[in-house]
TrEMBL record:
<dbReference type="InterPro" id="IPR040976">
    <property type="entry name" value="Pkinase_fungal"/>
</dbReference>
<protein>
    <recommendedName>
        <fullName>Fungal-type protein kinase domain-containing protein</fullName>
    </recommendedName>
</protein>
<dbReference type="InterPro" id="IPR011009">
    <property type="entry name" value="Kinase-like_dom_sf"/>
</dbReference>
<feature type="domain" description="Fungal-type protein kinase">
    <location>
        <begin position="1"/>
        <end position="297"/>
    </location>
</feature>
<dbReference type="Pfam" id="PF17667">
    <property type="entry name" value="Pkinase_fungal"/>
</dbReference>
Amino acid sequence: MNNEQLGYDPSIISMSDGRRFIEIIRDGHSERLILDRLMKRAPCIAGRATTCWIAHREGDKSHAPLVIKDPWQYPEREEEGKLLAEPTEKGVVNVARYYYHETVQVGGNLDDIRGNVRKGLDVTQATNYRPTRFQSSSVANAIVDTGRICRSTSRTGCKRSSSRAGEHGRALQNRVHRRVIIRDYGSPVYRAKSCISLLSALENCIKGYESLHTKVGFLQGDISTGNLILNDDEANPSWSAFLIDLDLAIKEQRERPSGARGKTGTKAFMAIGLLLGEKHSFMYGLESFFWIIFWICIHYNGPDESRIVPRFEKWNYVDWKS
């Protein structure tokens, strides 16, 4: 069996010297992006399984860094790449800048769960299929939300829909393999080396949140510790601090629902009004910044000194409807 048959991503190609790359067609020209290192691989049983790499364009002597983000997303959600392109074109500040996006194809076909991974296999026809197991609200501290299973291993909260899973068939929803490439990278703000650095980063992220709303009418949709990024490397040409992750962004004057299953975001940082079912607003995003400051003060004594506080850890898992 070859690597593709074993389940490896065939869009990532290995060279004889051990390096790996992807190829894209951008502005009518072919580009080869060399993968320098893995940034993040989200461990999950069912979910977006996002993987991120730091890369650079072959032939670029400056080695300007690019971030390649590969998530598996619900097809009805608007592509994050499209949502990032508009702010970049309109000069929004302190938001990750767009470079390229695509929906990955394998053998000329869409890379998705139903068609390419399961090859049309209908798991509901299996003799041991048990749909009721997806209706449990909690299993050994795991939360099942809209077909996503997330275990409490992070001190910074876990993104999910805040509505409980309970509808038969949600676990069988299709997901597609998407790819978005941006021109900015850094570290989460909770790794700031000083209080001044942290507060400066938060200030710039708030400016980015405001710029995104003022210039393109977007609400970021998931203000959380993992989506506020700090760049304290003078050699890094990225913004000094910026927002990432617009896949849950909301167009304030949208004509139709976003496709999200229930309220989405990182529950520990969501505004109280949102948890009570009110409509998202600019001010609710600002409230999330307050909860981030609160969370960091409770859980961190410095960039490498963190702790779990059970009293607040459960904020991300409690059922607010009960």
